Amino acid sequence: MKAKQWLKTFQRALALLPRAERERAADYYAELFADRMEAGEEEESIARELGDPAAAARAVLSESGAGEAAPAARKAGRPGWQKALLACGIGIPAVIAIIALGCIAVALATSGVLLILAGLGGTGSAFLLIAFEGFSGGLLALGGIMLAAAGVGCMLAPPLLLLIRLLFKLCGTVWGGTAALVRGKREGQAK
Amino acid sequence: MDTQLKKGLLDVCVLSVLRKEESYGYKIIADVAPYMAISESTLYPILKRLEAAGAVTARSREYNGRLRKYYSITPAGVRKIEDFLNDMREMERICKLIRDGGKQ
Questions:
Q1: Distance of residue B15 Cα from the nearest chain A Cα, in angstroms
Q2: What is the rounded CA–CA span in Å between residue A79 and residue A169?
Q3: How far apart are CA A16 and CA A73, in angstroms?
Q4: Do residue A39 and residue B26 have CB atoms under 8 angstroms apart?
Q5: What is the value of ipTM here, to two decimals?
Q6: Contacts (Cβ under 8 Å, ≥6 apart) of A126
Q7: Could you tell me the CA-to-CA distances from A95 to A88, A172, A175, B24 in Å, in that order?
Q8: Paired strand residues for B66
Q9: Paired residues of B71 in beta bridges
């Protein structure tokens, strides 16, 4: 049997385990295959020595007590009615908060962009006017001011972008935190 | 050897190997094998148990383009070895009784 086939059968026999545990066990054996092959052993002989992958899987299952543990893990966490109550009580304000944060981010972005665009537009029109109507100190000043506005907009762009990114990250945290709270703590998880 | 005795011994053997330096699955088996029969399927639950007990920590590091899990001993793990050695000293006394017991 080849390593890939051995590992595939092994993983399939571990279907009862939670994904993290199953992958952990599979990684362990995959690593052993890789290390032993690197040491010069033949893939098929390693597989033969490891024996029946289903038997190895049964050994892992018996050590993890999967029969009892799996349903127990699912039962930890909140009862359904608590979840529904929390989802409404905390979830709805959380969603409103997220929408508000999102609007702030969008507003910041828009004002930044508009400042630059308006500044450039103003500069352009001021100089066009100079070209068509003739030179005027006022128009030159206006052009300069508009250019400065665009410049300020560009300078503000990096900090504004950072702020917007932070705001969206905050949205994600609020969402994740609320979801975890509604779901309730699971066994063995501190976060 | 008695199975229960073996189980406890293997745990400490693995810890002792890790006390020297951090190691990975294949190497741990290679280092313990000359002293005690140990297979891949035996080592896995031992490492899981030791990690759960806080005697050992694991981290993945890149090796030759793949990820390898390296295990290192913790202070709690070192204490486990010392506890075992204390138990062994006590056992030596009891062995004396078993050997000489009843005889004059």
A1: 18
A2: 30
A3: 12
A4: yes
A5: 0.88
A6: A139, A140, A142, A143, A146
A7: 10, 11, 8, 46
A8: B63
A9: B23, B58
Among all chains, which residue has been given the structure tokens 């050590």? Answer: A63
- Strands, E, within chain A: which ranges? none
Phi, psi (rounded to 5 degrees) for B33: -50, -40
**Of B40, B48, B67, which is closest to A32 when you measure between CB atoms?**
B40
Per-residue confidence (pLDDT) for residue B17, from 0 to 100: 96
Judged by CB atoms closer than 8 Å, whether chains meet at B26 and A28 is answered as no
Do the Cβ atoms of B14 and B47 come closer than 8 Å?
yes
DSSP A108: H
Average pLDDT across each block of 10 residues of chain A; the chain has 191 residues. List them in order: 92 92 94 94 93 91 62 58 81 85 86 88 87 83 88 86 85 83 57 41
A51 by Cβ neighbours in 10 Å (0-12 / 13-18 / 19+) ranks as middle
The one-digit pLDDT tens for each residue of chain B (104 residues) are 777 777 789 999 999 999 999 999 999 999 999 999 999 999 999 999 999 999 999 999 999 899 999 999 999 999 999 999 999 999 898 998 888 876 65
| Closest alpha carbon within chain B to A21 | B48
pTM, to two decimals? 0.55
Chain B residues interacting with chain A (CB cutoff of 8 angstroms): 24-27, 40-41, 44-45, 47-48, 64, 66-69
